[in-house]
Write a structure and sequence with these properties.
With 465 residues, the chain is α/β, with parallel strands linked by helices. It has 17 helices and 13 strands. The strands form three sheets. Strands 4-5-13-10-11-12 form a six-stranded mixed β-sheet, sandwiched between helices. Helix 8 packs across helix 9 and helix 9 crosses helix 11. The protein is globular. Bound molecules: ligand F0G. Ligand F0G binds next to helix 5 and helix 13. The site of ligand F0G has 22 residues, from helix 5 and helix 13.
């Protein structure tokens, strides 16, 4: 199948430019807007042009080709991103793509979480099962491949941890130098260790994520560094592909609802783009609603919608233990808003206690995820309680990060040390009981089998009580 070239369109003023005209901060020189990558199939009005009667990729041919590639031994076919390269023509030669065989992530059912939330059918698309343990790999393989093809020597990002881990790994694969800027003391150790392991120059700045972004934006204007934050539109091209993979896994049956966590607010729009492209090409008959959930302590989009209907961003001083989404001034908030509006989804927020409970509930199903990912279940419960999602609707939670990313959080939770007294006091007696049933702190015993047996018996009594 012939690859199509691409252009970039400013999401604010609509100006269309060629890839060569893109500046180093990926913002429109006229209005400062962010760009979308566009293709011949990007702006077809929904369902108007049947794919078969145009020169666009044919839906049945794509399905067949994508399925065929599953049995190939080529690295780009084994990648769950580049397998969909027909809708990802962003590099001249995809055979040179920098890949760690990302994507190919499992779709799990969560029957117990479904019951807790009050719906019949709940699935989790576990993007934490990517090579570096987060969804960022799907975007990084795409944008890093562009950087390598354009012969950059240095790449950089500001990060709450996962982007830096992914960038460092892919840069190392491509033989590029990478610099990560992370907020000092405010990211999970597991993620910091990854960027060091993959050989990045790791700089902890004495500021928050938003401060790191400011410094990096200044730097890329003064040094030939390729910026790999999610303002880079090629990142989002990779991040749209889990939408394709999800539909393939669902045998092209479209779920009613997809729920994602919101931090810098790019991922929801990337998935919306993936669903929209599939819709335009006739691969799916409709687009699922996409909802975005933020932590209450890092809720700029939620506040913006509540307080001014989405007219102007209300930045916040972010504070949450879900460190991955500890972002107060998100770059892609307008893109996120557009994704909510075009798909008909909602923005919700979840408190620290609600996030911890949801994370333990996902863990108790043997799936597990990092705290930022657990906001999806916490948000789902609220949307069901508000009647915005009904029992029979099919919902997919996008779990963005692996549970081992932040094991300190999990250990503190199970030892009952996560919350301070004031926070504990805010938990209702009913929720206290739920937490108590979920907490499994390690038990220290003497090395004596009688003692161990007694403990097992008391545990059995507890279970059957
Ligand atoms: N979940 C996880 C695990 C993340 O790491 C992030 C973002 C998000 C959700 C939010 O995605 O920014 O597209 O809304 N992490 C960033 C980082 C910003 O630097 O790793 P978003």
């Amino acid at each position: 199948m012939k690859l199509q070239s691409h252009h970039l369109r400013c999401t604010e003023c609509g100006a269309i430019i060629t890839a060569d005209a893109l500046n180093s901060i990926f913002r429109c020189p006229t209005c400062n807007g962010l760009y979308d990558v566009i293709y011949p199939w990007s702006s077809i009005p929904n369902g108007d042009i049947p794919a078969s009667s145009s020169n666009l990729p044919n839906a049945s041919a794509l399905r067949w080709l994508w399925q065929e590639r599953r049995t190939s031994t080529l690295s780009i076919d084994q990648s769950g991103v580049w397998r969909f390269r027909d809708l990802l023509p962003i590099v001249d030669n995809p055979e040179n793509a920098v890949t760690l065989r990302e994507g190919n992530t499992p779709l799990y059912d969560l029957p117990r979480c479904a019951k807790i939330a009050g719906i019949d059918w709940l699935l989790a698309k576990h993007q934490g099962m990517n090579p570096t343990g987060s969804f960022k790999d799907t975007g990084m393989t795409a944008a890093l491949s562009v950087a390598a093809e354009r012969k950059f020597e240095w790449v950089a990002c500001a990060s709450t941890g996962n982007t830096s881990a992914a960038m460092a790994a892919y840069a190392a694969r491509a033989g590029l130098r990478s610099i990560v800027f992370i907020p000092e003391g405010k990211i999970a150790w597991g993620k910091l260790s990854q960027s060091m392991d993959y050989g990045a120059l790791t700089i902890q700045l004495k500021t928050d994520f938003d401060g790191c972004v400011r410094i990096l934006t200044d730097l890329v204007n003064r040094f030939p560094i390729y910026l790999l934050n999610s303002v880079n539109p090629y990142r989002l091209e990779g991040q749209k592909t889990p939408a394709f993979e999800l539909l393939e896994q669902l045998e092209w049956q479209v779920p009613e609802h997809v729920i994602v966590p919101g931090g810098n607010l790019a991922n929801g729009s990337a998935l919306a783009k993936g669903f929209t492209e599939m819709h335009h090409l006739g691969l799916i008959p409709r687009i699922p609603k996409i909802s975005i959930i933020q932590a209450e302590g890092a809720n700029p989009l939620y506040r913006t919608i509540e307080e001014n209907g989405g007219r102007e961003l209300i930045p916040v001083k972010a504070n949450t233990r879900a460190t991955a989404i500890r972002i107060g001034n998100p770059a892609s908030w307008r893109k996120a808003l557009r994704a909510l509006r075009t798909t008909g989804g909602w923005c919700e927020q979840a408190s620290e206690q609600e996030i911890a409970l949801a994370k333990a509930e996902i863990g108790a199903e043997g799936v597990g995820c990092e705290p930022a990912s657990a906001v999806t279940l916490a948000g789902l419960k609220k949307l069901v309680a508000q009647g915005k999602i009904t029992r029979e609707e099919r919902v997919v939670l996008v779990l963005t990060g692996h549970t081992l990313k932040d094991s300190a959080y999990t250990i503190d939770y199970h030892r009952g040390e996560l919350f301070n007294e004031a926070e504990n006091a805010q938990i209702s007696p009913a929720d206290q009981a739920l937490h108590a049933a979920l907490r499994k702190p390690p038990i220290v015993l003497e090395p004596d089998s009688d003692i161990v047996l007694r403990e097992l018996e008391s545990q059995m009594k507890l279970t059957h009580a």
